[in-house]
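[Automated response] Your request has been received and processed.

Submitted sequence:
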Amino acid sequence: MDLTDDRMNVKVLELKEKVLANNDAEADRLRAELKENGIFYANIMSSPGSGKTTTLLATSSRLREDFHIGVMEADIDSDVDAKTVAAAGFHAVQLHTGGMCHLTADMSRQGLAALGPGFDLVFLENVGNLVCPAEFDTGAQMNIVILSVPEGDDKPLKYPLMFEKADVVLINKTDAMELFDFRMESVIEAIHARKAGIPVFAVSAETGDGMDAWCAWFKSAVAAYREN
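Generated structure:
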């Protein structure tokens, strides 16, 4: 058999690279459209159990006088988080990803359409994990990463891309510091090794510690983005 036969020249498609490139382009388009329409879109990422929903609600309750807030809850299944957010008085939609462990820019666009008009601040609670969501640009203007004390202070070392993509990091559940071997200085040093100068806030969404400082920074960041 002649191995030089054209039939033996198998075409290899780098699908992930192409998918990511297409998604990045769609994300840029979505970001530009949102800015033109005066909508600030913030993407919250973390592992399961870090307190994403609790932090989102604690943040939203402090910002509800300043913004018209809409929330998109992304999960593989269930509508538990969307119901929790709705019960707190915020308009929410549940996004099922069909088994995917992240949200894409096109999924964001579909979710924003389902959420409807009238919001100038939209939070996305992304699918809970520290891997896939970091790889896919959602079109958000800000990536918020939450790391909880019970997870340990080594996560920026184990999941570098997540912290490289972050615009701000919240260290949540600081009220549990005494129960865990968690070194705040070490984790901040590791985060800054991944992305120099990124803001880091130590908070407890449950008790409210640190939340006012975080929300003041967030409001200033949104105002600066809109001015520029």
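Summary generated for your ticket: The chain has a mean pLDDT of 92. The radius of gyration is 19 Å.
If you did not submit this request, please reply to this message.
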